[in-house]
Structures are given as C-alpha cells and as structure tokens.
Amino acid sequence: GDFKDYKVLYSESESSNKDTIQTYTDKTITSHVIIDFDPLVENWFWVQVTDTMGLSSIGGGGMTNVLDSPPITPIIDSIYFIGDGIAIDWVQSQDNDFSNYSIQYSHTASFDSFEILYTSNNQSDNNYFYSCDTNTNYYAFDFAASVPAYYRLITTDVWGQESLSNVSTIEFEYPNLTISAPDTIVRPSDETVALQLVSAEVFDADGLETIKWVGFTSYHVEGDSMMNKGNYIYLYDDGSDVILYPPNFTSGDDVSGDGIYSFRIPIYGTGFTDPSFQTIAGHFIWYFTVQYHCLAIELFTHTIVIE
C-alpha cells in the first residue's frame, strides 16, 4: 500500500539519458498513449515505480517501437505510345501506410535533374496516360531532349518515406520508309510547269494507323539555305481524292490507305521570269520525316540534283 506513482521514461536510444514524459499517481493506470513520435527512429521507453518512501525501481529492460519500413519498391510494368500520347503502367502498391504515387521524368537515365509528371493519392491507380502536345513535333534524333525519355515511379508512405522504381523508357520500333524520287530533275526549257511525282512508302509493324503524316524539307547545298522557308512539303496517302489547291490540283497518289504517300512537285521551266515561278538549280538534300504517334522521326534523306 506504499505506492506513490508511475513515471514513463523516454530516450532516443537504449543507452542515452532518460527523461520523464508523464507521471501517473493512479495505480490502476497501466498504459500511456503517444501520438506525436517519429517511427523512423528508435523511441525507447521504461516505467519507473516510486513508493511513498521515495524508493524507486525501473522494471526490466526498456522497449522500443518497431522501425517503420520504407514502401515496397514500386515496379513500372511498361511504357508505350498509344493514340496521341504515352501510357505508363505499374504494379499497384500494397503498402498499409500508403500516401501517394508520383511519376518523375528526366532527359537522362541518371536523373541528375527531373520534373514531376504526375501525382496521385489513390492507391488503386496503376496507370497514367500522358497526352503529347499535338502542336509540337518531337524529333527522334533529339528524342531525349524533346520528349520525356526516362521515367520512374515513387511511392511515398504517410511518414514521408519514399521508394523508387526501376528507371524505364519507351520501347518502340522505328517505321521504315522507302523513298521513290529521281536523282536528277531537268527543268523545262520554256514557260511550262512539269509535275514531278515523289512518293514514300511507310512500313510500321504496329500498323499504318500509327502514322500521322509524312513530309520532307529541302536543303539547298550551294545556297546553304532551307527551301519553302523551312516548312514541310507534305505527302498524301489519299488516292488523289482530295483537291489540295484550286481548281483541281491533287497529290497524284494512286491508292488511298496503302501506306504510299505521294505529292507532285511543280518544276518551273527556265523561261519564267517571275521569281515566284522559278525553280532553283543545284544540289538538294531532302530530309524526310515520319510522324509516328507524337514522335517525328527524321531518319531518311534523299539527295537530288536539279538542272
């Protein structure tokens, strides 16, 4: 009957000095609840019993909490082009203390710098669709600097601990392009216009529906300049069903939807004096581009001489 009080003692480690965090004089109280603590570090506790004579003892060894583990390492299943964007699939988190997902992207696999593409606190999420900017051409020769090329998924728990997934990138096969164009074009010697058919056949293992357009730009070697103000000359797979310019100018394409894109390029004769109706002679490099989903792939060239 000489009980005086309980003291709950706390320390950051088993061997550090102990501080009293709570005193109870009611002998029937045998528990203490702590709401504010860090589960990521050790939190050691003891109970000291003191009697009315001032004698006290600390029962047994102290106890600490089980350190909270980081989230389960997330896994990105796949990243792929679909429609006008990029889809990212991952394995759903099974953590009991889940807080949120975030997707980071970087221009380098080392993630020296990165940006946040997506965040969600919905644990059932397991995919994200990233819509490409349809007004921008993302070039394959500069792919890493134009389209987010490297991705990783971060899972965060309620205590702020993070786990990072594997670094993933987009896997795809480049479409193949076969160019049909002459090596030399001779201008008419009078005031007439010759229409030179240029065609390019596209093959893509994923099907022609992945191809948005085909076109080329023209570089004049002697003039060290881009023709047509650097704008694309587009080819069409329309079977010549579409009137491109009045009154009845069509692409010259034979069959619609067969993967062969065509356009008839006007070659002006040397008899024209109006600068607007002249075809420059010289050596030219044509850079052909295939728009695959939201990725413009410029891997194809054709060299031509205009006399």
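Above is the first protein from milestone M3; the second protein from the same milestone is given next.
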Amino acid sequence: MDSSPILQILRALPPHTLRALGKFVHAAYHVTHQDVVRLFDILREQLPEAPDKETLAKLLYPKGGVTPRRIYHLNNYLLEAVEKFLAQEMWEQRPHDQHLATVEHLRRLQLRRESASMLRYARKRLEADPQRGAAYHRSEYLLQLESYYLSQQEGRTRSANVQELTDTEDVAFICSKLRTGCLLLSHQAVSKR
C-alpha cells in the first residue's frame, strides 16, 4: 500500500490543499460511496505512514468479511475522486477557461441569448487581462470559435467573420510555437553548461 499512487499524492499535497480535498471527498456530489470517504479519512489520519492492507481492511470493516478486491476497488474510486479534485484545482486557476466552458455549455443547451451574453462577458474579462501570452491568445481563439458556432447555430444569413477566426487561430498557434521554441532553446543552453 505504501507505493500506491493515492498515498504518493496525499503525501505530496500541502496541508491547505489536503483540507480542501477533504471537503471535496466529503461532498456527496463528488463521492457517493461512503466507504470511499471512510478510506480517505483513514489514509489521511495515518499520513505520512501507510497502513498495510490487512490493517486497512480491519479499520474499514471491523466486522471482517472484506476481500482484497473490495479494497482495490475503493482505492481506485478514491484515486478517481482525487484526480477530479486536482483537475478542478487547475481549472479554477484558469478563469478564461471557466468562462469558455460556460459559453459552450449554454450554447449546447440552445440558450442563445444567455450564451451571447456570457460570450460578451468572457471577452470583456479576457480583454481586461494584462497578461498577453500564449494562454491569452488561445483563449481569444476559442472565444472566436464559440462565437462562430453560436452564429451558425442561430442560422444567421450574414456570413460569419471566418477571416477573423483564422487570424486568431494563427496568432494562437504562432505564440504557442514561439513559447515552445524558447523553452527548448533555454533548456539547450542550460544543458550545454
């Protein structure tokens, strides 16, 4: 159990993130199986040590009757919940991606007015961002793409501004390519020393 991915992740998390993970795991929306919640609580209490499988089985099911396969499944369910938490933590650090996902979801729900309103808000927030790196240009391209999809969904007779869409895609690609090239050159310069 000591080398399991779940324990490696739990050990690596700082205390404030571990507390946030505890709230995430205890939320019935994210984890519906109570045994998974109990497994998380047991592992968190035992940190940084790792209980062996027999001890873990006794702590989870004091009356016995648990198979190693059951522990394996609970561990996998917990690992899945932790992976979702880590992905959500990264997603929350990217507000432009949040706005973009909201626009896309509203468009897929056929809520044209709400989608257009959220698209305007997302553009306004993106323009207010002082950072104009590759992530900015990627977000700008994706917002242009959503705008194009929305205009197609609305069945507008006017032609969509395809040139603007391709221009923003080109800029996003070139920025990403330049960033990667700079990273590679930097790595090359450091490794030659």
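Note on the second protein: Residues 5-92 form one domain.
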